[in-house]
Amino acid sequence: MDLSDFSVKSLISKEYLALDAEDSLSAYVGKIESWKHAEGLVFDDNDVFKGIISFKGLLRKKIDPSQVKLKKLMVQFPKITEEENIVKVAELMYYSGARLLPVFSGSSFVGVIYAQDIIKQLGKVDDFRKIRAEKLATQKPQCLKESDSFEKALLLMDTARVRKIPIVNKEGRLIGMLLMEDALKRYYSNISAPMQVYGASPQAHFPEKTDLLKVSINRDVSTDYAEITENETLPQILNSFQIDKGIIITKNGVPSGIITAKNLLQLFLRLKKEERNMRISDMPALDEIDKAKAINTINKVYDKLERIIGNKPMIYFYFKQYEKEGPRKKHVIHIRSAIGSKKIVVEKNDWNFLTGLQNACSVFEEALIRQVKKKEYRK
Fold it and tell me: What H or E segment, with its residue span, contains residue 358?
């Protein structure tokens, strides 16, 4: 089956955790206990969709969960339509880190698409059926010992940008898994004072917080995971896969790889039909959400140029960064293309990469309009 011709309409779910924008973080923590997904959808008093709340976005927050409102914590993920291509949706999930996306018909919210339902469709691709686990997995996953502290676990989740961490005993053998959702649920359930999730914190100010961070993670270790060998194939992996569980590859009981939603979503990128002639060089390291925003900005510029000239252009994006004023980095964004014999070159500098990219793209579009003078051009 060619998934590039398959829309997500049949996968839309009406089941989701609905939250009020005025609810506190504590209310979200309480509701998520009985919900199978870690994300919730935030609505205002008029039932208008406003954003998504997830534990992943809370790792670096300094907040009092009983006081802060969800409207201050929610994030914006890409919105999709009922007819959106399944490969495109998988790509958006891969780059943004979202595990569900809101679906709209016009301006009306109609439901959500879950990553698990998208991933299950991989079983319909004949070319993928023989892919083995070792080719999909993240090799040599970072592990923790059951005696490690809560603080160490949260720090690793943040720096390594992972949601699931295998837990091993003194001999290095797998005994369980720590899920970000479980860790942060207990953390926010037990904290009432303003806090910092990890890092140095004066015990004199927040003694109860410091004590919790030093507690061993052993009480939060989950045994609800799938343990497989490196030779198992994609159909077997999909049969074991659940978004709230982990799939760990072991050799003689020792973790050698881990398969997550991101590993499986990456397979969809192989199905993507090449549609844009672009060369992107030296993009700086970004987190998943910022990278998705950058790619979306770049794609919009390309699509506008394509509409103007009526065929597929070639655009070059060059990025450079250099140190200045201590640890701060200044970004240089260079965009170049040509329409016939007319060259369009734009270069902008900014301390914030996304801001600089947006400014450079805006100037590029203005230069484009001036040069081609297309009356039918519409932004």
Answer: helix 353-372
Looking at the structure, do residues 90 and 47 belong to the same domain, yes or no?
yes
Q: What is the number of domains present in the chain?
A: 3
Residue 305's φ and ψ, nearest 5 degrees, are -65, -40
pTM, to two decimals: 0.67
Residues 121, 139 within the same domain? no
Q: Are 87 and 3 in contact, with CB atoms under 8 Å apart?
A: yes
Residue 73, SS3? coil
Last residue of a domain, which of 109, 126, 143? Answer: 126
Sheet holding 108-114, edge to edge: 80-81, 100-105, 108-114
In 97-132, where does DSSP find H-type helix? 115-120
Low-confidence ranges of the chain (pLDDT < 50): 192-210, 375-379
Q: Give the structural domain span for 119.
A: 3-126
At 157-194, the pLDDT tens digits run: 888 888 899 999 999 999 999 988 777 777 776 654 44
